[in-house]
Amino acid sequence: MATLKSATLKLWIYDGIIGNYDVNNPNYVISKEKLNSQETILFEIGELVKDYIKVEFDGDYGLANLTAWVSYEVTNTFTDLTQTKQTGVLLGTQGYGYFEDLINPQLIEPLQQSNTCIYWKKGEKVRVPLYAGQSMYDAEWFENGVSVKKTPYGENLTPITADTTLYSADNVSNITADTTHITNVEESSYSVSEYSPVGADKVVITTRDNKQVTVYVTYIEECKNDQFKVTFLNKFGVLQDVWMFGRRKERADVTRESYKVNTIHSSTAKGTFYPTWVDTDKTYNVNTKKSLTLNTGFVCEQYSEVMQQLILSERIWIHEDNKVFPVTAKDSGVEYKTELYEKLINYTISVEYAYSEINLVR
Amino acid sequence: MAVNNGGDEKVNSRSPYYIEANRTYVPVVVPVDNCVGNPVVTITASNPIPFTTETITLTANTTVTSGTIVSYEWGGFGSGSTQSITATYTSALIQSEVFTVKVTLDNGCYASATIVIDWQDVPQIPVDLDVNCGDIISEATFIGEKKYNLLVGTRTGAININFITPQYTNESPVTFKMEWNGTSVSDVFGLIPPTDVTSKGDGYSLTLNKTTEQPEEVTLTAFAGLENDNYSFQLECPTQLFATKFHTLEGTCEIGYTTFTYTDSKWVTQTVQLLKGETIVISGVVGSVVVAECTGIVTEGGDSFDTPPEQEVDEFTELIIVLDDTGSMTKTQQPLMDMINGNLKQTLLEYYNNDSALYDKRVKFHRSSELWVKLYGTPVDASKAERFLRLATAGKEDPDATKTIYMFFQNEASAATQTAYQLNNNIGYDTATAIYRSDIAGFRAFLSATPYGEFFMKLFVVKYSEPANKFLEDIFSGEEGFSGEKGLSDRSECSAEGRLEEQVKYADNSQYYYDFVIEALRGYGFKL
Fold this sequence. Notes:
heterodimer; A: 7-stranded antiparallel beta sheet; 21 strands; about 45% strand; B: alpha+beta; 5-stranded mixed beta sheet; elongated
């Protein structure tokens, strides 16, 4: 009986239309021989893929680059030298799974954030990151229980059956907002932003199998502190926003170097042998980095997970003056808080700008 | 451990992602031939690289030098014991499946063969959306191109894509392009600064004019270069015209009105009320014209059209111009002859392949008396020469003509005797002679037997006495009792034009008659 002998993986990572890659030039070609002690051959491609995903965000969510297509072809060679091929296409992100998420975590839930309670600046449109995959059907916004916006994403809702009568939750036959299928689209179509009408306090996300996720929005009108929005690449590999309503503290840390020089003159041509106005300690290479301490204000318990993902994120931006600036989390831990003991939950996070205050770009 | 890569959609690259090689391959045991050289087996496939949704046929072809085949034994991904088997894609993971066959002879010799079938994924073809007239289409966010098949059928006229202001903001521009028969219209619709009112909304349309029934295919493509957008539109089609025929309605109700109802060419129900003795000619869908109240008579006529169907003059089109030569119109002959040989020939010659002889053969002039003799052979008198209905009933002159157009230039059809259509100085159907009644019945029978488009007739009523002219005109208008089967008011292929001047000053250059002839042809749908 023939068994697996070896396998060769070809891997393509690319942007744009699915399948639009150079067949003859894979990004990686990996060959493996199966050892006798092994049952199968595995290729781990996570880091290989990550290298080719260019995360770019300039404040325009619609133009943000977060994903890439990953196409693979595995040629399996068996002990009788027959060969088979297996191919596949995946959407690559810079997301990550937890240990509990098991091998090859997918994270393809329609709601691409872990919290279903959101605190948002009053008067601003709420943005919720969604995954427009095959399970997505629509997102409907409500204000005081009244539907104010409905965005369809797919047309094939699984019918609800009750005895002999077929009911469809949506009988509008002409809605075909099908950017959801995995073919014929660009990879950027998968990570979509759902914007609310101003004032909407709830969004219900419906999947094609009629499951619903409800995200509740609480608007904060903060009159004491300026509010700042922080955007970060979350566990799902998409951009998530968190408003910081509490106190903001800023600090600049300066670094410098120095050396000593002899200031004694050998002649009096300059007035004296010993000029007291000349510095003997010369300073050079003075740099500074600004850091911030931000507070969320009072939020729900689910923000523990949000804060954890924020400090675990490799890419964070803060919105200031209609621009976004990259920052890096400085905290090395987050303490989970509960309403039972902490009553009102506020999270404090320290970040520093991911550049020197002095422009050193050369 | 088994990794189900096939069900995965994402690689979250900050965590490991494993792709597992396929280890579920079912090895194929190929029997070793025991008698080398006999038999020899090969397998042929009806399609060696089928799509995964297809069924193929595999056939074992055996060459035998001695012995007889007693069995076929298929293996691998195949099964069966016949020379040919059908195969479908069965493996969840392997797209290159191996099929084997073992052929055994009655002498114990056997041989085997294998074939690898490479099943191909069915290509993903973008699904076009069919849109019926009146449908409202609502699209949400997408990037790229969507195509709609606009099912307008044979309708002609303006096809409108009427945008509907969506409930939510649609920010990004979308390029819409409508195409039909090689022509297209396109425009970019989006927000209009500085008001930021979207042109993908109420009051904005994209319009294409479909001028002919065929081809029926009309498409609309929408290209969205940016995401976060949506739009709605409604397909507005031109009104579809249904085939109709003329119907003559006559009220016979003793008290009050007779009420008729019928469906017109736009499929709208119409109602007509007539007092006893009143008549009217309407265009209605066949079978839809009924007496709704009291009593009445419905007489079906010929085909009717909102716009005459297009006709073409070609080398087989016959134009027969007949002059009433019974005395008073003799001076009209020369300008008619000049027209036929002059400006009319210049206009029509190209349709006869610029062949002058062919034109002369097809475009003919007859004095009515000579035509009567030619057709019916008997000595002619004036009253016979004016029986244009009888003359036209002869139909085409050239046996190979496919279209025949008669044009009569006539000022009267009256006589003091019963041998013409009308008794002198009388009008109305009651004064029509038995000759007329006979000729109109014969002519109508001829028309009913002739498909529309193969025969046309025009009577140019030349000025003469009022009763004489009016009589001729009534035949075509249906007035004075000439309605329905008593005249020609319900026939699209026959009409009268009145009243032409006799001996007009500019008749000398023939242009006067030329204009009438050309206009008459155009009136019947000929493109000139």
